[in-house]
Amino acid sequence: MTVAYQDRGLLLGDGLFETLLAVDGRPADWDAHMARLALGCAALGLPAPAETQARVAAQAALASAGLETGRAALRITWTAGSGGRGLDRPEACAPVLFATAAPAPAPGGPLRLITAATRRNAGSIASRHKTLSYLDNVLARREATMAGADEAVMLNTVGHVACAAAANLFWVSEGRLVTPALECGVLAGVTRAKVLAWAGDAGVPMREAALGPEALGAAQAVFVTNSLTGARPARSLDGRPLNEWPLMESLSAALI
Hints:
D-amino Acid Aminotransferase, Chain A, domain 2; 4-stranded antiparallel β-sheet; globular
């Protein structure tokens, strides 16, 4: 697949993507990811790709990468296509879809987290949908790497805890599971939704809230979630050791 140098996704970040785990050639949570992509398209004013078009591209990417067995990270990218210079899209918008696949090793042990200086804009559409505008996330992850950590915690522009650079964020405080509310500039993660559903079924007290970093700093346990790693615990936050949540094994098993 060749992307034109005039492509608006390349030049302006005008587009969306979804990252899925594929196991033995079968994409996990396909319908949920395609539904989220369609919601993003509606928010950005783009037509949504045909589901069959995306599925054919996904299977071709897995086959081309030799990843029809084992674990693979499958990415579906939908750009606004080419449209000359400037911000305005052409009247005849011609979006471009392509898919790529790469090996997805099983997640490792607990993460070391640091709080990044890079902030997330809670008022931006780009924070609510999986757009191609991911520079803030890139910079936050770079901060973590340079600090010798594995992942970054991002606050939003009003100082509330939002998310990790490439994951949703959860913590346990006084027996209650807490996660930042979507209005904090949080992506409505597919795995996030599964954790919320599991908590409801398991009778685990759950709260979605807009809270400052002091709430996270007082947490007994912290974990992050995304579609490739499921739920992955943190061993430390800004150098402070964290406990392992006793229900972590039960949650992880439910997400498989």
